[in-house]
Design a protein that fits this description.
There is one protein chain. By secondary structure, the chain is α/β, with parallel strands linked by helices. It folds into two domains: 5-93, no CATH class; 97-286, Restriction Endonuclease (3-Layer(aba) Sandwich). The chain is 46% helix and 12% strand. It has nine helices and eight strands. It has helices at residues 12-25, 45-54, 70-93, 97-111, 131-142, 200-223, 236-239, 244-255, 267-285; strands spanning 63-64, 67-68, 158-161, 164-168, 175-177, 185-191, 228-234, 261-264. The strands form three sheets. It has a four-stranded mixed sheet with strand order 5-6-7-8, sandwiched between helices. β6, α6 (200-223) and β7 (228-234) form a beta-alpha-beta unit. α4 packs parallel to α5 (131-142), α5 crosses α9 and α6 packs parallel to α8 (244-255).
Length: 294
C-alpha cells in the first residue's frame, strides 16, 4: 500500500493532532448490539472540537463559525481516508494461518526456491515454517534478477561513503537488498498467527519500524542517501481483531514518510513483483558519491 499524496509532507503539528485526537476519542467504535463490528472510527468535526476542548487545547485553527478551516478539513479528510482504507482494503487482505499455509505451499511448489524458508518460533503442533516470511523471501528471490539478497541480516545496517561509515542504524532489520552495508532497500516482517493477545511484543514491532524510519529520515535529510523502507505484516486475528489501533498507527507512519510502503497480507503477492525490480534498477545505478557531490 502506497501513501495517499494528499497527506504526505504535512507538518509535524498535523500528525500531533492526529495522534492526540485518536488517543482521546478512540481509534475504533465500541461493539454494541446495534454495531457488532468495532470498525475504525471516523471522528466528526464536533467530536474533534469537543476533544480538543476537553484537553484544554485551542480549536480556532480547526474550525471557525462552525465550519472547518483548511487545516480542519484536511484533518477530517485524513480520518475518513484512514478508516476507509483499513475497513475496506486492509481487512480483506489479512490472512489467517491456514490461508497463509496454503499460499506458502503453492508458491513453494511453483518457485522451487533456493532462498531461506525459516521456521517459526512456536513449539509442538504449532511449529512450522514461518509462512509469511517464506512467502516474502520466495517472491523477492523470484524477482531479484539474480542479485544478492540478505534475508536475515545478522548485523546492523550501515551506510558508508568512500569506505567510511557515515550512519549505522540502531537495530537489525529483517531483510536487506542487496546487503546490510549500503542497501537500496530494507524491510521488516511482522507475522503473528499464533498470538492470543495484542501484547507489548507486537506493539514493540510497530515502534521498532518507527525508529528505523526516523533514522532513515535523518540519513536522507542529512546525507542525501535514500534507503527504501518497507513494513510487511500479517495475521488477521492479531492485527484486525485485536490491534486495529496499531493498524491506524501504521497508516499514520506511512504518511509521515517513515516507511515507503506498508504491505498487508496477500498484498505482497501483487506488490512485491512490482517493487523488487525497482530495487534491481537502484542496485545497478548505485554508486558512491564523489567528494564533489558530498
Amino acid at each position: 500500500m502506497q501513501p495517499d499524496a494528499r497527506f504526505l509532507h504535512q507538518p509535524k503539528a498535523f500528525w500531533a493532532h492526529v495522534r492526540t485526537l485518536s488517543q482521546h476519542l478512540g481509534y475504533t467504535h465500541r461493539k454494541t448490539k446495534s454495531r457488532p463490528d468495532d470498525g475504525v472510527k471516523v471522528p466528526t468535526l464536533d467530536e474533534c472540537l469537543a476533544g480538543l476542548k476537553e484537553l484544554e487545547l485551542e480549536t480556532e485553527h480547526v474550525a471557525e463559525g462552525g465550519k472547518p478551516t483548511a487545516f480542519g478539513a484536511l484533518l477530517l479528510a485524513y480520518f475518513e481516508y484512514r478508516a476507509d482504507v483499513l475497513n475496506r482494503t486492509v481487512e480483506p487482505l489479512l490472512m489467517n494461518v491456514e490461508e497463509a499455509r496454503k499460499t506458502f505451499a503453492r508458491l513453494k511448489e511453483e518457485c522451487k526456491p533456493c532462498c531461506p524458508l525459516p521456521m517459526n518460533k512456536q513449539k509442538g503442533e504449532k511449529k512450522a515454517e514461518a509462512y509469511f516470511t517464506g512467502i516474502i523471501n520466495m517472491l523477492i528471490e523470484k524477482h531479484s534478477a539474480g542479485l544478492p539478497v540478505n534475508y536475515d541480516p545478522q548485523e546492523l545496517t550501515t551506510i558508508t561513503r568512500e569506505g567510511v561509515p557515515v550512519r549505522t542504524l540502531a537495530r537489525r532489520v529483517d531483510g536487506a537488498f542487496t546487503s546490510a552495508v549500503n542497501p537500496v532497500a530494507v524491510w521488516e516482517i511482522k507475522e503473528y498467527y499464533y498470538t492470543t493477545t495484542f501484547g507489548s511484543r507486537v506493539a514493540d514491532g510497530v515502534y521498532e519500524s518507527l525508529l528505523d524510519g526516523l533514522e532513515l529520515e535523518e540519513l536522507r535529510d542529512s546525507e542525501g542517501v535514500d534507503v527504501k523502507h518497507y513494513l510487511m505484516i500479517d495475521a488477521r486475528g492479531t492485527w484486525w481483531e485485536k490491534g486495529k489501533s496499531y493498524l491506524c498507527r501504521i497508516i499514520d507512519m506511512l504518511h509521515m514518510g517513515y516507511i515507503d510502503e506498508a504491505l498487508f497480507g496477500q498484498e505482497v503477492l501483487s506488490r512485491l513483483p512490482e517493487i523488487v525490480p525497482s530495487w534491481v534498477d537502484l542496485a545497478y545505478a548505485q554508486t558512491e558519491p564523489t567528494p564533489s557531490e558530498t
